[in-house]
């Protein structure tokens, strides 16, 4: 029996989280914050300690009470990449689950950095697994498939169950000219397409807009232009240290 619980991030930008139950095993894919609601909540109130329940009430983190009945069955929490709307709620909510967190090395370092900075201790172990690798967890094989985005080490996650595959692809950008790392692993997606895929959970910011999002290499050039533009108006040393600047 397979059930999918859409905890957050559907019809909204932020607090992405989906729980997938496969018999007696539950996998949580992403556990992000809703940045706008989080900032509003932490700015409006004079908060000393951020309480997870209050954050849930403010719509700043996914309302995990939706999976209260599944709580003890959670096996792994799997953030797909390092953006806060995919992992930012982990510091507040992961303690609810006796399960490790598994993500790519870059994502794991970003998460560890947030925990250190905010002095938050989690009982969950943080494990990392490289993109384009897989891991057998209980009765489900978890596969990370490399995909491009605006942050490194982003993955799509395939859960291989005895019934078939569930592919989770939430927030990515097919970029044929990435500034860092390889192109998306189209070959593997093609292979998966030939197998029994039970469900594809797929979304990305601005996915509903019918336009092509430019490559990160274009963004890099645009950024360069902005920085050089600043140099013309004022000395760039006022903003950043550039050793060769003679202005
Ligand atoms: Zn993202």
Secondary-structure map:
Elements: E1 2-8, E2 17-22, E3 25-29, H1 35-44, H2 52-57, E4 74-78, H3 84-87, H4 90-93, E5 101-103, H5 105-117, E6 126-128, E7 133-137, E8 140-147, E9 154-160, E10 165-170, H6 186-193, E11 197-203, H7 216-233
Parallel strand pairs: 3-4, 5-6, 10-11
Antiparallel strand pairs: 1-2, 2-3, 7-8, 8-9, 9-10
Bound molecules: zinc ion.
Keywords:
globular; 247 residues; 7 helices; binds zinc ion; single chain; 2 domains; 4-stranded mixed beta sheet; 11 strands; 5-stranded mixed beta sheet; alpha/beta; Metallo-beta-lactamase, Chain A
Please describe what this structure looks like.
With 247 residues, this protein is α/β, with parallel strands linked by helices. The chain has 2 domains: 2-211, 4-Layer Sandwich (Metallo-beta-lactamase, Chain A); 214-247. The chain is 26% helix and 25% strand. The chain contains 7 helices and 11 strands. Strands 7-8-9-10-11 form a 5-stranded mixed sheet, covered by helices on one side. Strands 1-2-3-4 form a 4-stranded mixed sheet, with no helix packed on it. Strands 5-6 form a two-stranded parallel ribbon. It is globular and about 55 Å long. The protein starts with a strand and ends in a 14-residue tail after the last helix. Bound molecules: zinc ion.
Largest sheet: 5 strands, mixed
Radius of gyration equals 20 Å
CATH architecture of the largest domain: 4-Layer Sandwich
Multimer state:
single chain
Elements, N to C (H/E):
EEEHHEHHEHEEEEEHEH
What binds here, in terms of ligands, is: zinc ion
């Amino acid at each position: 029996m397979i059930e999918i619980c859409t905890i957050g991030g559907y019809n909204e930008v932020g607090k992405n989280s989906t729980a997938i139950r496969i018999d007696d095993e539950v996998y949580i894919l992403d556990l992000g914050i809703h940045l706008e609601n989080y900032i509003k909540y932490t700015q409006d109130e004079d908060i000393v300690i951020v309480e997870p329940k209050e954050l849930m009430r403010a719509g700043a983190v996914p309302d995990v009470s939706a999976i209260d009945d599944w709580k003890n069955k959670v096996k792994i929490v799997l953030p797909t990449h390092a953006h806060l709307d995919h992992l930012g709620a982990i510091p507040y909510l992961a303690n609810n689950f006796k399960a490790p967190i598994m993500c790519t090395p870059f994502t794991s370092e970003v998460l560890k950095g947030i925990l250190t900075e905010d002095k938050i201790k989690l009982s969950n172990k943080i494990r990392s697994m490289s993109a384009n690798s897989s891991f057998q967890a209980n009765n489900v094989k978890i596969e990370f498939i490399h995909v491009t985005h605006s942050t490194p080490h982003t993955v799509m996650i395939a859960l291989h169950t005895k019934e078939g595959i569930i592919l989770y692809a939430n927030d990515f950008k097919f970029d044929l000219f990435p500034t860092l790392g390889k192109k998306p692993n189209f070959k593997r997606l093609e292979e998966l397409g030939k197998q029994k895929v039970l469900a594809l959970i797929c979304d990305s910011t601005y996915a509903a807009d019918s336009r092509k999002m430019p490559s990160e290499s274009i963004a890099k050039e645009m950024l360069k232009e902005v920085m050089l533009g600043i140099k013309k108006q004022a000395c760039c040393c006022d903003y950043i240290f550039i050793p060769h600047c003679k202005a």
